[in-house]
C-alpha cells in the first residue's frame, strides 16, 4: 500500500465524519422549534427586537454532535500513529505491507471501540443527568493512560523503585545507622558555606538577629554597635550604621522585640537604651538611686545590665537582669514623651543566694509561651518564677546547679526543660519537674568568657554551645550535640580564637557566631537556607565615587538687588542714591548684630557674690599680694630724702650705664649732686590763687 493510498483513505474518512456531523446538526436544527415571533419577524423583515425571544438549544443533539466529532478525531489520531509506526518498521527492514495491513485492522477495531465507548458514555450521562445535575464529568479521550510518575505510591514501593534505578538492593544505604527517618542529623546543620563579617579588633560581646531576618546587630568590647541590613549590604559586608550608644561602656546584650521595631541595648551603665529601626535612640530607662537599700523602691537599675530579653508574645514588654541583684520588667507603654524616658519599672524580682543575700543574675530568659521567667545567677543557681502579679517565691529552684557563675539559660521549645551553661566548663539539661539532678550533662567544655551562649536548634533535635578561653593556646569550637543523649554530632574549630556568642535564626536557617578576634562568621546552606546573608555575598560591590567638593562663591552686587531697582515714573525714584546705599548697609549691620544682648552685671554686695569675686581683697591670694606690696613700699614711701633714694642705685647705674649716663656724657661728664639735703621749706599760700568762697568778707568787699 502506497503513501498516496494512505492519504486518500485518510481524506475519505475525514469527509465521511464531517458529513455525519453535518447531518446530525441538520437534524437537530430541524427538530428545534422556531419561535412564532421570530418567524414572523423574519418573514416581515422588520427590525423590532422587542418581540425576539431567546434561542432554545437541544442539549442532546449537541452532545451527539460532540461525540461524533470526538470519534472522528480519535480515528484520525489512530491512523496517524499507525502511519508513524509503519514508517519506523519499514526503515528497520521489516515487511512494510504486512505491518500496514495489521495496523489497519487494529485501527478499524480501535475506532469501533472508541465509538462504542463514546455512545455508552453518552447514554450513561443522559441516564444520570435527570437524577443529579452536579455529577457531570467530561469524558476521557479514547486510549487515555494516566501518568504514573506523578502518582503517590507506597513508601516501600518508592524505596524499591529508587533502589532498582540505582542498581543496588538497598543493603548499603548511605544513611543507615542514623536516628530518625533515615536522614542524618548533620544534614540539618546549615554549615555548607561561610561568610566573614569584620566588626573590630576586640571580642564580640553580643549579637542579635531580628525576628524577620532583615538585619543583624553586633556589639563588642570596643563600645561600638554595628547594624548590618541585608537589603543594603553588598559583597563587602560592611555595616549600614556604626554607633557608640553607651559612650565608654562595654556592650553586654542586644535584643530585638517581636516586630523588630525596637532594639534594646544593655551595657556597663545602669540605663537601657532603646533604638529604632534606623539606629536612633528614642527612649531609655531611668537610673535608680544607689543609696536606697530596698531595691523595690528604686525606679531603675543601679548597676551594669547583663542581659535583656523580650516577651515572645507581648511586643512592648522586656525583662532585664543587672548586677544590682534584681530582675526588672519594663513596658514601653510607660514611655514619657517629655522626658524621653521610661520613668519606672512595672515589676521587680529579687534574686537571693543560700544565705538570703543578694545574688547577681547574669542571664535571664522567657519560656516560649511567656508564662515562665528563668534566671541564672553568679552563685551557680538557676531560679524560675511564674509570670504572675507577685514574684515572691520561686516556682523552680536549683541552688547548686553549677559551681561557677551561669553564663546562659535557655528554655526548651517544648517548655519542659532548661539548658544551662556556666564557667565551670559544663553544659547541663534540667527538667522542670525534677530539680535534684540534671537530665544530661556534658563536661570538659572550656568556658572563659562571661557571655558564652548555648541553645536549641529550631526543631529541638540538637543543642549547641561554644568553647572559649582567655588565652589563644586553646582553640575555640562550635559544638552541636544530640538533644536526647548529648553525644557530639558536629563541630567547627577556630584555631587560636574563642567562640563566644551564637545565634541560630529559625526562619533564615542561618547560624551567626561571634568570635574573640572581633569577627562574625555567618553559616548557611544554599539548599536549606534562604535570604539573609545569601543575597549579600552574591551582590556586586558598589562603585565608590570620590568625594567631590564643589565650592560656590557668592558674588553680591548691591546695585542689582530688587530694592535698588527703579520704581514708578518719578526720575528721583529711578536713581540709585547715596541714601539707598546707606540704608542697605545699615540693614546688613543689623543682621550681623546678635538678637540677644547680655545685660550688665549687677554690682557686688559682698566680697564674692553671684559666682564673681572682687578684683582685689576678695580672695586669700589677692589679700596676701596686697599686703606684701604695701609692706614692700612702706620704706620707700616713708623715705622723704629724694637724694638718698636716688644715690641708693648709684653704684648699679655706674656699673651698667644705660639711660641716664649717656644723656649727660657731653654736657656733664662728671655728675654734680647737692652736697647737703635740707627739708623743703613750707610754702606760703598765695592769697591771690585762693577761691573766692575762702576769702574773708572784708577782703572780698574791698
From TrEMBL:
Q: So where does this one cross the membrane?
A: none
Q: Where are the WD repeats?
A: 204-238, 298-340, 354-386, 399-440
Repeat is among the record's keywords: yes
Q: Where is the composition biased (Basic and acidic residues)?
A: 78-92
Database matches in PROSITE patterns = WD_REPEATS_2, WD_REPEATS_REGION
Composition bias of kind Low complexity appears in: 11-42, 65-77
Enumerate the SUPFAM superfamilies for this protein.
WD40 repeat-like
User: What protein name applies here?
Assistant: Gad-1
